[in-house]
Amino acid sequence: MEMYLPILFVVSLLFSYSHSSVLDFCVADLSMPDGPAGYSCKKPANVTVNDFVYSALAITGNTSNFIKAAVTPAFADQFPGVNGLGLSMARIDLAVDGVVPIHTHPGGSEILFVVEGTICAGFISSSANTVYFRTLYKGDVMVFPQGLLHFQFNSGNTSALAIVGFNSPSPGVQITDFALFGNNLPSALVEKVTFLDHAQVKKLKAVFGGTG
Question: Does 198 show up as a binding residue in the annotation?
Answer without folding.
Answer: no
